[in-house]
Specification:
Blueprint lengths: L12 H14 L1 H13 L18 E5 L2 E4 L4 E4 L2 H4 L8 H13 L8 H13 L5 E5 L2 H16 L3 E5 L37 H5 L1 E4 L4 H11 L3 E6 L2 E2 L5 E2 L2 H13 L3 E5 L10 H6 L5 E5 L9 E5 L1 H4 L21 H13 L2 H24 L5 E5 L2 E5 L8 H5 L3 H13 L2 E2 L5 E3 L6 H18 L1
Parallel strand pairs: 3-15, 5-6, 5-7, 7-10, 10-11
Antiparallel strand pairs: 1-2, 2-3, 4-12, 8-9, 11-12, 13-14, 14-16
The protein binds pyridoxal-5'-phosphate.
């Protein structure tokens, strides 16, 4: 066992099975659709995160803060498509611009004015972003940001955080979800994400633990001549939305500046914490930023942007761009207009209200787990939260995987049986339609689930 990783708490396996049995009894149509889907899609799925055991519920429709599955079960949705639907489901203004634009033409090979408007809003709001390029996913955004950093510095390697997820392209697919058994107890070493990954990928990546300033400093100083960029989230999503210590962010900023390493903040998820993202909330401004999720109004999207001198590699106006960047649906007007609706709806007051409610949610959750004497650590910031079945502090990936995964599974399934959808990792996000009643519903459901599974 890895040092510092605790054994799980004891969950009676029959309690998990009871929740699964209840789920199965509530979802016969989903079970049937899963069977059909398995004929055409591996495991019946196109997306790792939409699958959970024994099979996922198939969704019929969304309705504001709720989703309704094909069996008619209505759930209060704290997953909201991986935090992306910040205005809730089926927002009428968004449906309006999507149908209007579909009537005019969904995508063209030439640019439209809609991309200027969304780019204008984002560059105004996000401190690090002088200019921006749109993509169709966050994955493409991080891929292009890394490429830009390599071009700008003339260096090849990257430094990332252990447990950090930045999409599914190879360069960042190192030490994303390494199992406890694979972790080197003494340090963070780059661990290939899959067994057939070319060895050169992990050889091009340095990995450090989140919030470990001295490890980051040692690696950066020793290898500065080789490192093109540090890519990291200022609020790390995969381990329950743990905000970085400000001192860690400041140290990374100071070192990257000194060593001429491009600092990339992946704000695909954390843009939702304030109008200018986590970089504004924490007051630490990177060189480049990657975006996705909320900026597409529920349609596929990604983006990368940053300092004008770095981004100028993509400028074709003066004799051709140094870096090619194409994409059939990049900046398509449906996405741009849907994104514009979202960004205009997200006023400072909306962020403040959501963030204050997030604080209430985390406090109420802590109180209910304490009242029931269950060792739980609640993480998160602003409108984001994560639940860990451990009594230890959660500051990095290793802390997070020390929590009890069986309890987490039973809790996730129990909550779904209560009509509350969380992410399978027992994390979630608020949206602008969230109210204190919704928070109370979540907390009361948590109490009932714990009573059943403890
Ligand atoms: C922090 C972060 N970066 C990048 C991505 C990749 O975005 P996409 O799924 O749009 O490719 C995600 C997706 O969950 C993410 O959470």
């Amino acid at each position: 066992m890895v040092q510092g990783v605790k054994e799980g708490l004891d969950l009676d396996p029959s309690k998990l099975q009871a929740e699964i049995d209840t789920y199965i009894s509530r979802t016969p149509k989903s079970a049937e659709l899963q069977k059909q889907a398995e004929s055409y899609l591996p495991g019946g799925s196109s997306r790792g995160t939409s699958y959970f055991d024994p099979y996922p519920h198939f969704i019929e429709r969304g309705d504001g803060p709720y989703i309704v599955d094909v069996d008619g079960n209505k759930s209060l949705d704290f997953m909201i498509n991986a935090t992306s639907l910040i205005l809730g489901h089926a927002n009428p203004k968004i449906s309006g611009v999507i149908s209007d634009q579909a009537g005019k033409g969904a995508a063209f090979s030439g640019p439209t004015s809609a991309q200027i408007r969304l780019a204008n809003i984002l560059t105004d709001r996000i401190p690090s972003v002088d200019t921006i390029r749109f993509t169709n996913s966050g994955t493409e955004g991080t891929m292009m940001a890394v490429r830009a950093a390599r071009q700008f510095t003339g260096r090849e390697k990257i430094l990332k955080i252990e447990g950090g997820y930045h999409g599914s392209h190879d360069y960042v697919s190192v030490s994303v979800y390494p199992s406890k058994e694979k972790l080197d107890p003494d340090q963070s070493t780059p661990i290939p994400e899959y067994s057939s990954q070319p060895a050169a990928i992990a050889e091009g990546v340095f990995v450090v633990a989140y919030n470990d300033s001295s490890a980051a400093e040692a690696v950066m100083r020793e290898n500065a001549e080789e490192i093109a960029c540090v890519i990291m989230e200022p609020v790390i999503s995969s381990i329950g939305y743990v905000p970085a210590d400000i001192s860690f962010l400041e140290k990374i900023r100071e070192l990257t500046k000194e060593l001429n390493i491009v600092l990339i903040f992946d704000e695909v998820q954390s843009l939702r914490v304030s109008p200018g993202g986590a970089q504004e909330l924490f007051g630490v401004v990177p060189d480049m930023t990657t975006l996705g999720k909320i900026i597409g109004g529920g349609t596929p999207v990604g983006a990368f942007g940053g300092r004008r001198d770095i981004m100028s590699a993509f400028d074709p106006t003066d004799g051709g761009a140094d870096l090619a960047h194409a994409g059939t649906f990049n900046a398509n007007p449906i996405t741009m207009r849907a994104g514009e609706v979202v960004m205009n709806a997200l006023t400072k007051d909306e962020y403040d209200r959501m963030n204050a409610l997030g604080q209430v949610l985390r406090e109420k959750l802590r109180a209910v787990f304490a009242e029931m004497d269950v060792p739980v650590t609640v993480t998160g910031v602003a409108s984001l939260f994560g639940i860990h079945f451990t009594d230890g502090e959660v500051k990095n990936y290793r802390d997070a995987i020390s929590s009890d995964t069986q309890m987490k599974k039973a809790f996730f399934m129990g909550m779904l049986n209560e009509g509350v959808l969380l992410m399978a990792g027992a994390a979630g996000a608020l949206n602008v339609l969230s109210t204190e009643d919704h928070v109370d519903e979540l907390v009361d459901s948590a109490r009932r689930v714990i009573q059943r599974i403890r």
